[in-house]
Amino acid sequence: MILNLRVDHKIADIQSMENISKQIDELFLKLHEKYSITEYVEISTCNRKEYYIYNNYIDSDDELLSHENQNIIIEYGDVAVMHLLRMTSGLESMIVGEDQILGQVKDSKNKAAKELHCGKALDAIFTKAIHVGQVVRNRTKINKGSVSIGSAAVDLAEKHLGELEGKSVLVIGAGKMGKLVAKALAEKDLSAIFVANRTFYVAVELAKDLDGTAILFSELDEYLKTADLVISATSAPHSIITKQRLESIDLVETDLFMVDIANPRDISEDVCELGVRLFNIDDLREIADTNTKLREKEFGEAEIIIEEEFNLLKESFKIMEVETMLSTLRVSMEEIRQRETKKASSKLSDVDGSSKILNNLTNSIVNKIFFDISKNLKQAAIDDKKDVIESAEYIFNFRN
User: Fold this and answer.
1) Longest Cα pair distance anywhere in the chain, in angstroms?
2) Catalytic residue selected from 31, 46, 246, 251
3) Checking phi first, is residue 397 left (phi over 0); if not, alpha (psi -120 to 50) or beta?
4) 3-state secondary structure of 397
5) Cα dihedral across residues 131, 6, 13, 105: positive or negative
6) For residue 196, what are the β-bridge partners?
7) CB–CB of 82/43 below 8 Å?
8) Cα dihedral sign for 149, 155, 161, 167?
9) pLDDT digits over 384-398, tens only?
């Protein structure tokens, strides 16, 4: 059974998402402990937290899954898989059509594989999901001129500050999200752009691409004093900019503009008490809605592609169900072939080349017999003919 646990931007604001993400982690750990989960993929981004679990022992009526928090979405089977396909296609993103989610899903799958908890079933599902995301982008205009959370943050700043020309901008965080912010800022005629990151050489590389300046994280306070706009997107587990910090550098009664696109948030809300204009992921919704309206006509074609690929995935899973039986059958037939060939060869030892001829003959016979069995069983799986599969298990003695 495929199980999906999640919270995302559609049902929760940033504050709720931070809290619910912790609850989802706790729920997953309890399920892990109870069912010894060996296959799972975790996806964590600025506006979603999800677990995909493959386990045939979890009971959908388990009290662990009968929670009171309606903000935790729990879905099973086809519904869970369809959500994943829609997500990689960019249809479930806050910024519809954005490409970043595809990379984030790839990274999550690779991480799970590296840590040895992405088994055959989840590997097949996620490989298909990534493929679907690529096909949708190639065959539709869902991501044409698409914006990202990073560029939406810059758009939000321009909406409130006006043109950024001549402004001094400080970008905190040079990871993937920070790079998206920087890419959008590169198109603006800024007076200065500074990049701060805990790993300094990463900040240096990004600043070089922007013709900006990398600064040490320890120098952050000095640059906060002179910035017109601060956009923060680190992976810190706690706030890095607070009212107390700004007061300690004598930054009071300021008109500083800050956009926080991190989750958990980088900037605490109490900075607003000093006159800071603070915005976060929730404030990007208006820009996201405008983006969605521009792409609505692409939804229909994307949905058709997703449905087609989903049906192909279901067929492949049906075939996977009989592949174990076919593999066992093939091994059994090969053992019989080798044993009988050996017997026959000993009787024909006086004939030159007889062993090779006999081996080729028996191998050919097994291949031809097995071909029809394999083809017919796979077709039975696709056609949901469970009685045929059960009969085959009985005939070939594969029942436990």
Assistant:
1) 104
2) 46
3) left
4) coil
5) negative
6) 172, 215
7) no
8) positive
9) 888 877 777 776 766
CB 75 within 8 A of CB 87: no
Q: What is the residue type of 138?
A: N
**If we measure between CA atoms, which residue out of 104, 128, 127, 96 comes closest to residue 50?**
104
Angle among Cα 19, 24, 29 to the nearest 5 degrees reads: 130
* Cα distance between residue 142 and residue 101, in whole Å: 13
Nearest-Å Rg of the Cα atoms of the chain is 29
Which pLDDT value is given to residue 353?
64
Backbone angles phi, psi at 341, to 5 degrees: -65, -40
| Contact residues for 187 (Cβ-Cβ < 8 A; gap 6+) | none
Position with higher pLDDT, 166 vs 147: 166
Tell me whether residue 118 is one of the annotated catalytic residues. no
Alpha helices in the chain (DSSP H): 14-35, 77-88, 100-114, 120-139, 149-161, 176-185, 200-210, 220-226, 243-248, 285-347, 354-382, 386-395
User: Which of these, 220, 153, 160, lies nearest to 182 by C-alpha position?
Assistant: 153
DSSP state of 56: S
Give the tokens for residue 298. 């692409």
Which are the contacts of 258, defined by CB distance < 8 A and separation ≥ 6?
Answer: 229, 230, 231, 232, 241, 267, 271, 276, 277, 278, 279
| Interstrand relation of 168-172 and 192-196 (parallel, antiparallel or unpaired) | parallel
Give this prediction's pTM: 0.80
pLDDT of 167 over the 70 cut: yes
Residue 366 to residue 342: CA distance in whole angstroms: 15
Q: Is 17 exposed, middle or buried (0-12, 13-18, 19+ CB in 10 A)?
A: buried
- Taking each helix axis as running N to C, give the angle between helix 100-114 and helix 77-88, from 0 to 180 degrees, rounded to the nearest 10: 120
Task: Band the pLDDT of 337: cuts 50, 70, 90.
Answer: confident
Q: Name the pairing type of β-strands 73-76 and 168-172.
A: unpaired
Query: Phi first, then psi: what are they for 294, rounded to 5°?
Result: -70, -20
> Three-class SS of residue 346?
helix
Query: Which amino acid is located at 87 in the chain?
Result: M
Other Cβ atoms closer than 10 A to 281: 23
